[in-house]
Task: structure prediction
Amino acid sequence: MPTIKLVLFDADGVLLDSLVPHLKICEDKNKEFGLGLRIPSPSELKAMARCGVRISPMTDFFMAVGFPKELAKKANSQYKRLFMRRYAPARFPQTDQMLARLHHSGFRMGIVTSNIRTNVVESLSQSMKYFDPDLIFSKDDVASSKAEAIIAAMAKAQVTQAETLYVGDQLADWEAAKAAGAKFLGVAFGWGLSEEDHFCPIVREVSDIASYVLGNDIRAH
Result:
């Protein structure tokens, strides 16, 4: 694998164990709005995402589970205010150790996410110290696509496409990396990819991300 200098991460499903909290806010808003929907289970939502159903940004997530467009927008507005107070997700175990390992190995790191900055910063907490502040791209900062954010990050870091790796958990993340010309690593523990996907390298655990980047022998196909 060519030398990687810049590692960009999606947040939800890669660094943050946030699928269940997102489904919980959907269930609560479903009841509040009287929609009578059956909100998918985590495994059902992952299957939807693997089939290409758009689940980010958050308005799309609400629509994916059955909210009408206008109520999805209303729910998203409330999500921005309420999510971190009532549904705050935790980091996946080993996230801080994995980031520290890459940081101490000399890699520059950034975030490209469809979530809002406040949610990501608060959830990652002390782990934010490993990221270059100039390489944080969130829904608030970038009205453009993830692909354009990856390109902007490469320009700021002054690295090439071959020197850039984007780590994501959805088909849309792979497509964004491909559109930007960056390399991609998928994770099987997130929202929308599994070990059954063979169109990109996949790792099973958070700690495997650092092993893959460092070129160690792990199961990534």
Remarks:
- The two ends are 13 Å apart (CA to CA).
- The CA atoms of residues 96 and 127 lie 6 Å apart.
- The mean pLDDT is 93.
